[in-house]
């Protein structure tokens, strides 16, 4: 079965794919005819597709996030590859395909990632800090294994959020060894909490964000997480004025570094400075790694990456 | 008794004033001599002053925020008026002067201002909204009558914060009449809550801010107030996800309008847009009014006002 | 008759509408066929439309700004609703429809608005100021009742400019009561004059701006209005150096507040500061009000509003 | 007689100089003593100076802009050279010194410069354009020979404004030859008018700007000059709507190129684009030339130049 | 034969043109049909075109940069003119048309331009400077006559780079006469070297840039040219630390003036300041001249020009 | 002997210190008296000092960078501690003090640091890359052990540059393990080369930068290092067009990430993105670590740190 990433213009192919997006539209013909405007994906990538001969029954049969068997042809439309679907049917039990095989996901099993996060949480020596982190993780426990870290920016796949946390925890551990003046408890807590409210900020299914939630737009994950720390402290009986609560809120509030990037205060503790750079470095390097791994080896340049000043990455031939 | 605002170079004067700031310093002489570096103020303004002949006893006698009787001479130092103190003694009970006569304060008695704010709070028809506002006011009840709205920017005097709120409430009431689609409950609540955490953000005495608190620097009054709404909701048993709690947090979080001005989210409800402009208009017009009223009538231009793009205000002769 | 605002995909409808825009285009067919690319509107909103079967006679029959009877079908095109016109004919006298019923206009009759503006002008107590305002109003007298305040930004409808002025005058009156140090004459004059040259800057018909005039692009409404004050003063024999003329020019020149927003000088009189905020607050709140009232009640969010940092407005369910 | 530019720390000197600035101040001594805070200058440069032993008679004898004979010593104060005046007396008729010998001025006699400007004006072939230019020159006729082009930025000396115009006219003439599509009449007019209102914007004597005028602050030289074109057109009976009047206003209004630099519109005619670059190039190169010529040959670097992104200029040894 | 620039909607025409771009695409039909997506050009301008009835043989016959005879019809597509090709065949030897007649090129023969540049190079009196310039010119000798100065920004045609240099040399010569303190050798060298690496930065054929080279993206023409000066110095045995080498590198490195425009250092020699303004003025005025000459006389406004703050240029009717 | 860092106002002390800066100045007295304006330092920090009774012999005795024995008193001057020197004499051989004991230096011996750098260089597997790195290190071999990484920004002490490199190499090694797609050779080379030209950009002695060199100002360390790679390649016979040379230049040229921070191109290879973040993270965390370690334990806040958006760092009490 051909992977989406390998499809090139003029290819004819047949295989199972996921209907990531599907909308019924009408042509300009008289009378207008229905067609499907589709995004087909598998774990290697995604492509736009059209299915022109839609019957009334089809409209009751196909829905977003469904698995399908497709026969199609790739052609160029406005300089980008697009699939023209010749035949399509829903996957059946006997096809033996499973949704999770078709979505992009972190390179490590997300249950393992969550275990690592929890183990790190348990290793926080200060009890109150640990309890606050625990309280906040609990609020998103169900969504943590599946959520991406962003809509498109970086780690935008199943388990992306947990993967981002784990990689940051590794980097944080290295830094605490290299620079022992950093408080490891605080840095661990900051890394786990900094994006903990992302699942509240975005609506996602199977690691795919459909949109931002109302709360996400009106409050944002930064102020949301800061509020959860307040909630935890109130419920756990820890005074809001304690340096611990203030310090944890500060880590979360300042991690975007600048006001224009969404942080109402700038990093003013050693750990907050470290957190910002750990977050930025992990996000940017992951963008680079993902762009390189989803770009065909034959291409010298990746597509432009919005999070890197809209620059493309070049594959040096060294 | 001559008011500070009326003192001009070459004036000799005698009267009671407040030692707003006082530091002991040493001259470059050999051996170095102690002198006082002072800021003298009354309700009309303030001037720097020096007292050169400090005895050891003087150092035990004079402290910041104390009332004193001073005889002095005004001269120009680096193009600005400065007082050379010839004689100074602490005010005594029999002098019949009272601290509150010497500090700058809002033009309306601050207890009256607080009454207006509380009455407005009572007029909020939605019970949960009213209770949240009540909870937050309670947290600063003692400090509300005296606190300024800012260190130097605007309303920087005794009762300034309450005065700012009351003026904004008047403007808000006008707008709700002019544009009935605005929700008056929300706007009232937003006006009262938007700067409610300022007393936690800044350390002040008698309406004079000495500096920002640690919490103020690390969290800021915007995220602090948003956290208080969370705290109130948790204590009052109102779900954090309710549109009321989200809507109130949004008002507070967005009232500075832009990220670079400290708001992690931008106004996205009608009342949040209104709140931002009510706040900005009241602050800027008060800066203008205060600058004009503290500048001698003989001057065509006020000093430059930082909050107004560093422009001075001209007194048109019309 | 169904209002434009109420039309949803799949709706079939028939009624009278205004051809706000109409262009003849050709399809890609061989030989190419003519079709009409249309914007249909009524007072509730507008939608793009296509009429595919254009005869040579049709091309002589239909023109922009004409009233027509249309039968059509709404469908989605690139995720936005579009009308496919099945039948179209010009409105006839006996249809009893009138152009003014089909354009969007200010909620108050624009002749009444102009009367209010003139009455306010008459209430200016200083004679020279009043005469200058009178002179400038005269220059746009014919266009004042119909002109919008902007092309799309805010108050973009019949009478929008006069409506903007009247609302600002109300707000100005409130402020002069709240802060008596403001000069009411100047503020009234500033509000009436600040956008008085908009009808010279933009070409519009029935409240709909087609484009900016050459003069509008090369000089702009701010410098134009400032020039009109000069012209008025020269004709009325008032010295250009008088504080009145300088003060009025300053109000107009500075009302956009910053250089990057088009003001060559920044507000430096109390009334100029007030004028800027009155203008900004009225424009922004009107954008919010208009966006909410033209968005179907069923929608939680309005479309994004360019003038509000490209944010959409949320309808809190409180 | 030693020129100011040649004075170095430890130099003792005697000669005639101009009291560019003089203020009476008081020392911190008890009782305070009067002293003079002075800026001494000649045509080569200026230095701060102090005269410590001021008698009451001295205060009636010395004033700004007076010529004096001084004996003094140069020393370093806060890393900058300063003069300590040992002896000072007013210049007398028999000293045979004249004020104009002591001020910095353009390298060409300013009457000659004005003649060149007037001759260029006469060479404008379009009569109405010529008359408008003539009208505007008339308004500043008396001040044109002496005025500088700016307070400190560039051409800040006697005749600087006329010199700036003449150099720009030369460059404009070259460009019209190199690119014949440029309209020479317009470019000449634009160059003469672009800064014509500077004498109204700034108060200056003998080429030295003391401050900005009220009108200068409230309207600015750009809108002032645009208003003068309107005034000229009204008086000369040329319609304000004519392309000539609009085109000339556009040249003046757009010559600072960007809103943040004070232009309410951006250059939108060929001549307006040319004018902006001619102005910028002449101003910047003059800053460089003046900085190099007033910096001692022994120095590799000039002081930092504000108008050149605060960079200093290096004297390459080639 | 009708020039591209003169073609208007509804025009039918026949003539020879250059296939500047050509791509094979597929329609949405079932089965999809091939068509050509084309950009047709001649020396007067260019237009998009479609050829719908592509045979397999056609795909082997037509290629980019080939000359063709075309019969077509102009129509409007998305408000822009587009050509529908009815008939197309390759040009034959007997047609007597030559590629160079169909490309846009500088108004002066590019061999003459190169001669002028070389003659100027020979006139540099300092031997080492002259040799470095010579070395760098040698590196691009073959490409210098044909290369444009930019992809689309300015001088984007055959010989554009050399034409830009020559015009700048004229302006530089004028400036050295007007301001003799400028070092003519340095200015000549700076003008010739500043864009000398453009042919390495961009891939172009016949004056038409297809894209940036890898080296162009990774190093840029500024650092490339600076490196060439280093290379020249090493090969010629001139010390890298000499003021000559440093001064020439500085001219090249600083000519974009600001970091955000690509210069790692800002101009800090007189000639570097001059070079920046000569470059900017020539580029901007050429944009204006080219926009006016390629816009039909009947149009008042040119299209918007990206390099001029996205403003269009107005043709004043004077 | 009391360390500079421990001195508090009113302390009297005696000990050996380094005269980091010394200038002879004159008082305002008549006649003026000489005094020394001094910066005294040891390895813990530095303080300004004055010595008022300077004899002619003293002026021949004391010079910057000399060791002295001082008896003094600390007092507050403009709210900052300053030393009043009572007695001062040069250190003698028999005092047994050595210059290196008095300068601030990296926490690891700088010879060891250089060894680590060289060993890393040897571990680069690609021969040409290794040779280029070797060539560039050779150019600064003598200065590498002592040079700081910046004037004041970060690592501003003896061995600071080498220390910065070594810490970055550790972080780079970690990242190459965490993300094996990174090319370790390139990253090592990029880390060693990115600031290699700093010793050419700045003049320094004993780790203390006095100023920027002319070459440093005119070319900057980024373009300098890029030029050294060119020089190395020319000398070693490696083609300038090879991906190796281009890739190394790209690493150096892009490491400041943005044009406004001095990089003429932005990172466009994986290693260039990594290099930028490794550099930024190490510099910022070192600023934090240094600020905390040089701030007395008793202080909650460090001074403001320019490189951290001018924020101070808070010492959380956790």
Quick tags:
homohexamer; 318 residues; alpha+beta; OB fold (Dihydrolipoamide Acetyltransferase, E2P); Hypothetical protein af1432; 2 domains; 5-stranded mixed β-barrel; two-stranded antiparallel ribbon; 10 helices; 7 strands; 39% helix; 20% strand; HD domain-containing protein (chains A, B, C, D, E, F)
What proportion strand of chain A?
Answer: 15-25%
What is the spatial order of strands in the main beta sheet of chain A?
1-2-3-5-4
By DSSP (H or I, 4+ residues per run), the number of helices of chain A equals 10
The most extensive contact between chains is: B-C, 46 and 46 residues
Structural class of chain A, please? alpha+beta
Radius of gyration of chain A: 23 Å
Tell me, briefly, the overall form of chain A. Answer: elongated
**Sheet having the most strands of chain A:** 5 strands, mixed, barrel
State the helical fraction of chain A: 25-40%
- Oligomeric state: homohexamer
- Number of DSSP strand runs of chain A: 7
State the end-to-end CA separation of chain A.
33 Å
How do the SSEs of chain A run, as a string of H and E?
Answer: EEEHEEHHHHHEEHHHH
Overall mean confidence score, pLDDT of chain A: 92
Give the uncertain stretches of chain A in residue-range form: none
CATH topology of the largest domain in chain A: Hypothetical protein af1432
- Overall domain count of chain A: 2
CATH architecture assignment of the largest domain in chain A: Orthogonal Bundle
CATH class of the largest domain in chain A: Mainly Alpha
Keywords (chains A, B, C, D, E, F): Hydrolase
Domain HD/PDEase (chains A, B, C, D, E, F): 157-293
Protein name (chains A, B, C, D, E, F): HD domain-containing protein
GO molecular function, one term (chains A, B, C, D, E, F): hydrolase activity
């Amino acid at each position: 079965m051909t992977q989406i990433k390998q499809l090139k213009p003029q290819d004819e192919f047949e295989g199972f794919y996921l209907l990531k997006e599907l909308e019924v539209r009408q042509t300009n013909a008289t009378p207008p005819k229905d067609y499907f405007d589709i995004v087909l994906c598998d774990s290697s990538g995604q492509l736009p597709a059209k299915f022109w001969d839609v019957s009334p029954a089809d409209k009751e049969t196909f829905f977003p996030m469904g698995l399908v068997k497709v026969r199609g042809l790739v052609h160029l439309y406005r300089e980008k590859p697009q699939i023209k679907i010749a035949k399509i049917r829903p996957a059946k039990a006997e096809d033996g395909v499973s949704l999770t095989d078709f979505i992009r996901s972190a390179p490590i099993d997300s249950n393992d990632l969550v275990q690592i996060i929890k183990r790190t949480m348990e290793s926080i020596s200060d009890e109150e800090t640990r309890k606050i982190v625990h309280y906040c993780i609990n609020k998103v426990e169900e969504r943590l294994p599946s959520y991406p870290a962003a809509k498109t920016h970086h780690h935008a796949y199943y388990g992306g959020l947990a993967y981002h946390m784990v990689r940051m925890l590794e980097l944080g551990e290295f830094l605490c060894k290299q620079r022992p003046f950093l408080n490891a408890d605080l840095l661990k807590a900051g890394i786990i909490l900094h994006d903990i409210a992302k699942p509240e900020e975005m609506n996602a299914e199977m690691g795919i964000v459909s949109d931002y939630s109302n709360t996400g737009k009106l409050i944002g994950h930064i102020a949301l997480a800061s509020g959860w720390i307040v909630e935890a402290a109130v419920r756990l009986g820890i005074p809001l004025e304690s340096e611990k609560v203030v310090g944890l809120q500060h880590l979360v509030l300042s991690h975007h570094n600048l006001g224009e990037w969404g942080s109402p205060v700038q990093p003013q503790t050693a750990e907050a400075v470290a957190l910002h750079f750990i977050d930025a470095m992990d996000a940017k390097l992951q963008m680079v790694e993902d762009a390189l791994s989803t770009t065909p080896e034959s291409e010298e340049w990746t597509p432009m990456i919005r999070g890197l000043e809209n620059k493309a990455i070049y594959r040096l031939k060294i």
